[in-house]
Design a protein that fits this description.
alpha/beta; about 325 residues; TIM Barrel
Length: about 325
Amino acid sequence: MNSIIEKRKQNWIDFYDMNSSVNRLLVVEYTQDVIKAPPMRWEYMAEREEWSYRRYMLQMENMEKLHDNTIPYLSAITGTEIFAEAFGCPVHVAANQNPFALPLIRDVSEFSKIKKPKLENTNLVKLFELADRLKSRVGDDALFCLPDIQTPMDVAALIWDKNDFYCAMFEEEPAVKELSEMVKELMFEFLDEWFRRYGPSFMAHYPAYYMPYGITMSEDEIGIVSSDMYRAYFRDELHEFSERYGAIGIHCCADSNHQWGNLKEVPDLKVLNFVRDEINTRKAIEFFGDSTAQFHNTVVDISDMPNRDRIHLANFVYTDSLENAIKIADAFNESL
């Protein structure tokens, strides 16, 4: 066991405990010497393996120099398309962009096209093969980051053309829920196998934070629906994922302020990440300040907040070089 890694793991565990004194963490990513990630396409699996391996080794090499809370990990990162593709969605690949799923059906009249696939017949098994090869190269102690796990309703909104999908949530509720249930069942099969193979602890796909157990998910479609629609379609599945795996971390890129009260009710919600501007990030920090640890992309000065000592806030900073990353981390630690 590496003592630095174990200490950083414990920092994250303590950070999620709202009664702990560990209430500020920092993660710094730098671009110097980091090789460019290959395309997130199945035909580049050998290149993705080599990239993940070399990135991990660089993190291990620099860990003693950079005094932040980064934990080296092997990346199995993917695009958002992997579960929609498993259901038969075509995938669009554009130059210099991540692949994305195109709809399989236009409206409910085509619902018969949707069949729940067998996990072993999908490209998802290639992620197990990638992980197995990487583990064989670096050993069983290495952590993986999970693939980008969208919620079942978010995946359903990829499979069903969104021009009709949101109307169908009002007019075809049974069909929409049947589709999200099929997606959820496939996700459970994949995740159960993932945790059986590689253990319960992992790094979140974005941003990179440690989870000793649980699940991390991207939840973006809640930004476009009302609070009532959230409770009708999204609440139960989020609660079920958290209850099945023991805890949850949620990443959201959407304008979801109107859902914050609903998110506060998710059981065992350990950490929230919002990709928002400074004004809305500050609002989120204040709203969730006494209930949930937060790890946002936008750095906000909270020194004027009266409850700042009760707020558990991690900062995520990009910079160009390892030298600058070291300076940023050292300055952060001196401020504590």
